[in-house]
Each structure stands twice: as C-alpha cells, then as structure tokens.
Fold this sequence. Notes:
Layout: E1 4-9, H1 19-26, E2 30-37, H2 54-73, E3 79-82, H3 85-95, E4 100-104, H4 109-123, E5 128-132, H5 154-164, H6 213-229, H7 242-246, H8 252-260, H9 269-292, H10 313-321, H11 328-340, H12 345-358, H13 363-373, H14 379-390, H15 404-411, H16 416-420
Parallel strand pairs: 1-2, 1-4, 2-3, 4-5
Helix pairs in contact: 3-4, 8-9, 9-14, 12-14, 12-15, 13-14
The structure holds flavin-adenine dinucleotide.
Amino acid sequence: MSKKILVWFRNDLRLHDNEMLVEAIAKSDSILPVYIFDDRLFGLTDYRTLKTGNIRAQFILESVVSLRNSLKLIGGNLLIARGKPEDIIPQLVQEYDINEVYHHREVAEEETKISSLVENGLWKFRINLKHFIGHTLYNKEDLPFPIKDIPDVFNQFKKKVERDAIIKPCFLAPDRVNVAEVIDWGNMPVLNDFELIAPVQDARSEFEFTGGEAAGLSHLQKTIVAIQQASAKKYILASKLSAWLAMGCLSPRKVYWEIKKIESIPNAKGTFSQILLGLLWRDYFRFMFKKHGNVFFKAEGFSDQAVSFAENHDLNFENWKNGRTGEAVVDAVMTELNQTGFISNLARQTVALYLINTLKVSWVLGAAYFEEKLIDYNPASNWGNWANIAGVGNDQKTKSVFDLDKNIKNIDPKGEYALIWAS
Ligand code: FAD
C-alpha cells in the first residue's frame, strides 16, 4: 500500500529549509500539502481589536498563493480550505487515505491548543500528528541547556548560545514532489471573505512588503546588495525581513547563512551583527514562551506589583491608536503603523513606552493593537517585547535600558519625520 503524508502548512510558507516538507517527501509515495484559513485568526481579541488587520491579512493571502505557485512549479499543488483544522484535517485524512500528518510546532497557547485538538481528532483514526521545529535559528535540541533551564536574562542566553550552540545548515528546497490525486484543490479566499477591505498604499511610504517566499528571497538578496554597497559609517539599520520571517516565507537560518557569506566584507560586519542580534532576540522570545507559556499574555506578567491606570484610560488609548496624543513623534509613528503595518524597533519601543508610562494605559491593550496592525506580528516577539517594556517580563533588567526622550530624539533628530507622518 502506498504511503501518503498530509503536510499541514501554517507559519512555514516556504520550500527552502523546510525539514517537515523534505521528510514528508522522503518518507512517502505522495503528499497532500494543505493550508487552512481558520476564521478564529480573523476574529476579535478580548480587547476588541482584530486578531489580524487587513495589511497582514493581505500579506498572508499573498504568501499562500506564492506557496501554491512554488509547489505547482515542482509538480505539486496546495489544497486550500477554510474552517477549523481540527474538523478539516481528520476529514481529509479519511478522504485521501492519509497515513500520517506533519506540521510545525508553535509556542503560543492558541496555536498549540489547535494542534492538540487536531492531534485528538486524529487519534480516533490511529493517525499520528508529527511535530517539527523549524521557526528558530538555533534548534531546541542544539541548545546547551534544556528549555526549563534557559537563562531568563537575554544577555546570558546570548552569551551561552553563541559560545556553545551550533546553527545547522539549511535543508535544500525540493525540486520535485508527488502529490495525492485531488479533484478540487480549493479556491483562495479574498479579504472581503474576512470582512476586511483592501489596504491602500500610502504615498509617504516605499511599501516593500509583498507576501511569499519568492518576494522574501528577493528582499533578502536586495538587502545583501545594499549591505555590500553601504559605506563603513552608514550600515543598514533595519533589514525589514521580519514579515517574511513571521510567516515562515524565510527561514532564520537562510537569512543567517546568506548574510554570513558577506560577513568578511569590512562594511558588512556591523549589519551582520545587528541582524544576528535581532534573530537571537527572536529565538529568545520563542524559547521564553516555551519555558513560561501564558504568563506573557497576562497584564501582571512576572511582576507582583499592582499598576494604576489613568482615569481617562479609554480615551488615552483611543488617542494613541489614532495618532492624536499631541506628542508629534508618537503620533507620527502611530500614523505610519496604521498606514503601512511596519515601524522600526525604536519606534515600537517609543510608542509602547509612551502608552505605558505617559498615558498610563495597560500595556496589554497596546500589545493587542500591535497584534492587529503589525505586518510581522508573531505572538512571542510581540507580547514578549511589550511585557519587557512594561517591566513585567521575565528579564526585568531590560526595563532600565529604555529612555523615552532619547528615543524620540533618535527617531526624529530634525523634526522631519513628524512632519511627513503628520496625519
Ligand atoms: P532587524 O534589526 O533587521 O533584525 C532581523 C530580524 O530579527 C527581524 O526581522 C526580526 O525577525 C528579528 N528581531 C529583531 N529585533 C527583534 C526583537 N526585539 N524581538 C524579536 N525579534 C527581533 N518583531 C516581530 O517580528 N513581530 C512582532 O510582533 C514584534 N512586535 C514587537 C513589539 C514591540 C513593542 C517591540 C519593541 C518590538 C517588536 N518586535 C516584533 C521586534 C522588532 O521591532 C522587529 O522584529 C523589527 O523591528 C523588525 O525589523 P527588521 O526586520 O528590520 O529587524
């Protein structure tokens, strides 16, 4: 009897460096690649914000189309469905005589809960859900400590990992795939199906974010050329790779190994170190989510101190969201976020500090708003960074490094940025 493996794509929308896909192809006669649009991802949060705003939703749609096209180019396709994975996957398993299901493990509660529901649904048919780990630069097994012993202080984590762990090479992208015989591979939904309207590009931004592996790889190559051409003093400050990393259109290892190739060019060293530092922060928050779980979503976080909020808390939050606080740089950053879905790390820190310390609004509202708006949202990076800025994260030392006034000056030393993004 021929062996069929269902490959359930989630935030891993790529062919390159995809162990799950490589192994599924190697261990089966044919695979059934599947992507499921789960309406829960497009619903409301507990804070009355959207789980996915229109800019990221558009990016996700583009990324799924791109994956389908890439699979078609190597003889395959991608089955597209809409509904709950825990309902759909067991149905597909029966319909297509599937022997095993593969997927990538996530770290945040909502995602892992869905995996457990799928796992339970599959057990009824004695079918195994195999978990892969493919979202981080360092594999969990290659860390010099078990998850429970990972240092909570970022600098200790970084030091030990850089000294004692290895970064594995990338898996090659498959060049051929056999897929199950499917009559209807399913249609792509449109934004309107999720009650979202198409985003309009703001003329003030050079919007560079098209979803998908091909666009991500092309952006990576452009970044590498820019690094090579940059002068020694003015290295690239932000790679803007985060959206592709968040959807798994790019693997962090791919980014690392590609940029490492040019590390020896004198002018590239600074950018290489900065991107590597970012990737380490990204790994750190994922591992911290694995270690501590849900604490990151709670307002009190790891702290036992009560926080008081402003009387006009709700109004302050509304003004912040809409870029109407009266602080020009904060308002400009929020306008840029609302219009483009992307702001720099410094800008994120600045508006977060302003919301928490000046407007005295609960940080969880800010985090939920970022969840809606950011094109590169991922739970661990977003909620982990917010909790640290609020001083309720697991690395309490990070709070002291934030300085609102200094940040504002650094974002807009000449007052030009605030003028451009005045709403
Ligand atoms: P680069 O500086 O070029 O770094 C390379 C990569 O490293 C990034 O693409 C990103 O994947 C990762 N990275 C860099 N800095 C961080 C960091 N501090 N924490 C985690 N990963 C990092 N990043 C997200 O990807 N998704 C989020 O939802 C998110 N929410 C944030 C919320 C707040 C309040 C703050 C302060 C930061 C948040 N970040 C988030 C981290 C960071 O701001 C972005 O990753 C970064 O600005 C993306 O720009 P870049 O690709 O040019 O980064």
